Amino acid sequence: MKTSSPATVAFSVLDLAPIVAGATPTDTFRHSLDLAQHVEQFGYTRFWLSEHHNMASVASSAPVVLIGYIAGGTTTLRVGSGGIMLPNHAPLVVAEQLGTLASLYPGRIDLGLGRAPGSDQLTAQAIRGSRFGGAQDFPRDIQQLQTYFSAANSGAAVRAIPGEGLDIPIYVLGSSTDSAYLAAAMGLPYAFASHFAPGQLLAALDIYRRNFRPSAALAQPYVIACVNVIAADTDAEAQWLATSLQQFMLGVITGRPAPLLPPVETMQWGPAQQQAVMQMLAYSFIGSKATIQQDLQEFIAQTQVDEVMAVSNIFNHEARVHSYQVLADALRELQPTAELVR
């Protein structure tokens, strides 16, 4: 197995399009574009947007629209979905939408696919209607997408135009070992949501690598791990900024989601709540440049991932941009070249 080091690992961004307290989705989207333009300058590889529904704290309910917005405002950054929840959509519609994006922004569009609803079950039923059991069709729907994207489908009765014959990389997203088996069997790159589901990361990566079957899309395993990063000029400032993320996760586990709140000096939570939140945030890298360098170096050595995708849920937009700059500076010092690996 290859050996990963910070010098060979790509670094990217996952944007949950957080709605902060006192702001609107319009503010969120403006900040997302500004962040994308900054991280493009910082040397990041890709910028992915998630799909969530019925959440007061997240504005990314239509990632395809946001991908076009971000791609249109940048020039070299890869932009994609992290991910599109495929059971919520007909594969043909996804193929046409991504085909449109890839035609507008050639060589820059990624398609990350998940099987979760991206919401509660009642909302999922409202989205899916008669396709409510669609998660069971996830493997078949991915294969259908691959067919629509293939040039060989040109003689079929149903075609994706645009989309047909385009090189749109497909990534399988997951937060459990089930997705690892699927990504391995299909020979597709694998992105794991360790920023909120850390418990099965190591087991899932082992399953994926041991069972991987080379395909026309990918010759050897490729792993992206998504982690939380809150970086600042000092450890103390980063820990303070991270209380916004902790409040966000506390709202998730207590069933009271709210817009992203400002940092606080002291978290108001009980021991059980604190333990639950900290378990969800096990793969969070919080601190100054030096602290981030050391902790990420250890994480990469342990997991041997090919790419680290950072999500930074920080209340203040300027502090969020600065977090990605600190991370880029930390990684650049660990790498022998002037740019992050692309």
UniProtKB/TrEMBL annotation:
Q: Might you report a single GO cellular component term?
A: cytosol
| Assigned keywords, A-Z | Oxidoreductase
Q: Which CDD domains match?
A: Flavin_utilizing_monoxygenases
Q: Name one GO molecular function term.
A: oxidoreductase activity, acting on paired donors, with incorporation or reduction of molecular oxygen
Family per similarity comment: To bacterial alkanal monooxygenase alpha and beta chains.
NCBIfam families per UniProt: oxido_grp_1
Q: What is this protein called?
A: Luciferase-like monooxygenase
The taxonomy runs: Bacteria, Pseudomonadati, Bacteroidota, Cytophagia, Cytophagales
